[in-house]
Amino acid sequence: MRERLHGFVEALRGAGVASSVSETMDAFHAVLAAGVEREVMREALAATLVKDHAERAAFDAAFDRYFALPARRRKRSTQPPTSHEGEGAGRGEGAGRGRSEREGGGRSGDEERREAERGPEARARRAADRLARRRALAEMSFQEMGPREIEEARELVRELGRRHRARRARRLRRAHRGRLDLRRTFRRAMSRGGVPLELLQRKPRPGKSDLVALVDLSHSAAAAAEFLLALLAPSRAFFRRVLLLAYVDDVVEVSYENGHVVPHAALDLAARSDFGRVLRALLERYESALTRDSVFLVLGDARNNRRPPRADLLDRVRRRVRTVVWLNPEPRVRWNTGDSVLAAYEKHVDALLAAGNLRELGGVLDRLTYPSPRPRSGYARVP
Predict the structure, then answer these.
(1) Are 309 and 274 a contacting pair, CB within 8 Å?
(2) Residues 254, 262: contact at Cβ < 8 Å?
(3) Which residues contact 115 (CB under 8 A, 6 or more apart)?
(4) Where are the domains of the chain?
(5) Residue 194: which region, alpha, beta or left (left: phi > 0; alpha: psi -120 to 50)?
(6) Packing angle between helix 21-34 and helix 38-49, nearest 10 degrees?
(7) pTM here?
(8) How many Å apart are CA 285 and CA 166, to the nearest integer?
(9) Helix (H) or strand (E) holding 327
(10) Can you tell me whether residue 228 is helix, strand or coil?
(11) Which helix (H) or strand (E) holds 226?
(12) pLDDT 10s digit of each residue in the chain, 383 long?
């Protein structure tokens, strides 16, 4: 049973319902206490593994697949074959019976194979294979992806966005309520003989921030830019305002609609990147959107085709906003090589993060939703 439950937890994770080690152990003990009757076990597992009502449908679907009821087999006829008189009839009867037995055995074998393929062990194997494939896809560099991998990654990005949204919604509800402040509660209880008559809460975290995202749509960073915008799309509710911008040698406003990046003005995707010119255009057209409540997010490889980097303009942006985060989709070994001027921009950002695959890109969302205040002593480059 322990192995079956572990397999179910893996299948559940593949369906988008994540469970920690402690929750898995709680689920195992709950089943031991409640028993293995199907519906009782379903509710015991749901009580320990489902953390949000929005995840219940995915849980029930995964439970029905993994713990599916066995298919009913058709009853075979036990009526003896009709006897025929005569030697010729006997030979014909034996030949016919041999064929029917062979055919019946083939049909029975096919039925058994199909039932085995639909069994819980087979489904667990398929779920494990699917999970291994998704993990490998999350670790694959964007530069190594072909058309097939990019299409698979789009589906994975949609699921990551949904999971992040559900997780952030839970945290946001807890943040609005405030967490129990044990230290203040115990101090207040000292005046009442140590009896905690009043539970004191911590103050909720600060309100929502604004997000200004500037992504590179040139060929070298296009896949990473598309996936980042897809991840940000379901998270718009966690920001007060969101401004999505894209650039090559100029900057335009974009949106993410029906799985596609839609520019709101003409943008030459075949142009040579010029981030210095982009920064100048950004300050001319969108400076009013850069406020002390703004998180300024840049995705790009900082390859500027030997043109002036104008890092002073990025410093000007940094002085206006709350946090500057730079995501580089290139492998680290290529940073600051060739025409990359990342070092010129690095000193004007609060966090420089690798974003060369989906795992690294997905880890950025938590930093953006509730960004930390800017460090007092210079910038903080995150390794």
Answers:
(1) no
(2) yes
(3) 70, 71
(4) 2-67+119-137, 210-369
(5) left
(6) 150
(7) 0.60
(8) 35
(9) strand 323-328
(10) helix
(11) helix 222-232
(12) 777 887 888 888 877 787 777 678 778 878 887 777 888 888 888 888 887 767 788 888 888 888 877 655 444 444 444 444 444 444 444 444 545 445 555 555 667 666 556 667 777 788 788 888 888 888 999 988 888 888 888 888 888 777 776 666 665 555 555 566 677 777 777 777 666 666 666 665 555 789 999 999 998 899 999 999 998 887 777 788 999 999 999 999 999 988 889 999 999 988 999 999 999 999 999 999 999 999 999 999 999 999 999 999 999 999 999 999 999 999 999 999 999 999 999 999 999 999 999 988 888 776 665 444 444 333 333 33
Architecture of domain 210-369: 3-Layer(aba) Sandwich (3.40)
Q: Which residues, 6 or more positions from 232, have their beta carbon under 8 angstroms from its beta carbon? A: 211, 213, 242, 244, 256, 365
Are the C-beta atoms of 210 and 263 separated by less than 8 Å?
no
8 Å CB contact between 314 and 212: no
- Helix/strand/coil for 253: strand
Q: Can you read off the two tokens belonging to residue 218? A: 């040139």
DSSP assigned state of 242:
E
The maximal CA–CA distance of the chain, rounded, in angstroms, is 109
Tokens 């639909």 sit at which residue?
Answer: 118
